[in-house]
Amino acid sequence: xxxxxxxxxxxxxxxxxxxxxxxxxxxxxxxxxxxxxxxxxxxxxxxxxxxxxxxxxxxxxxxxxxxxxxxxxxxxxxxxxxxxxxxxxxxxxxxxxxxxxxx
Length: 103
Fold this sequence. Notes:
With 103 residues, the protein is of the alpha+beta class. Helix content is 38%, strand content 16%.
């Protein structure tokens, strides 16, 4: 079973990182002939992202359980996910979890 700890600090304090990411995204868009992604990347000029403007969606693909035929998560996975979602919500983000049935 994998353990995870999510560090959300860079998102909140990484003004330089956000500026660099935007520059790299613009270069990649130009190289691939695509556009529009820069509209969703903070431009690096604001000190912190406005968390209320972002929604974080966890999309989790699972096979249904054989006995119940339900798509669900193991108990301790739910506990870990809830802890991560709570930290994000404390920062002001909206968090959604979607279970996607694998076929």
